[in-house]
Write a structure and sequence with these properties.
Elements: E1 17-24, E2 28-34, E3 45-54, E4 57-58, E5 72-75, E6 83-87, E7 95-102
Antiparallel strand pairs: 1-2, 2-6, 3-4, 3-5, 3-7
Amino acid sequence: MYNTLNVYWLSVPASPRSVAIETAGVNSLSLSWQPPHPTYGIVIGYSVGYSIVTGGQAVSGDVQPTSDNDMTLVTVDQPFSLHFNVTGLRPFTDYRFQVFVIA
C-alpha cells in the first residue's frame, strides 16, 4: 500500500484584467474589472488605489502602493465584488487608478 502526498505551490495571483470606468460624475466614478486569469493563487479580495496626476505623470508613479507615496488605497468592502465606487474626487482633476489583488 502506498501513501500519496500532493504538494501544491501557490504564488502571487496575476493582476485583475479589463479595468474600466463604468460611470463618471463630477466627484465620483464607478470602476469595474475582471478577475485575474490564470489566478496563480488564492484571491481573497481586491483593493483600489488612486492618485492625482500632475504634470502628465501620476504623483505616486507606477509602483505597488506603500505608505511612502501619495496613493490612496481602499479595500473593496465585498471581497468578491468586481466593481467599486470611488467618491470624494476633485472636479477637473486627473487621476490614475489601479486595482490590486489581495492574496
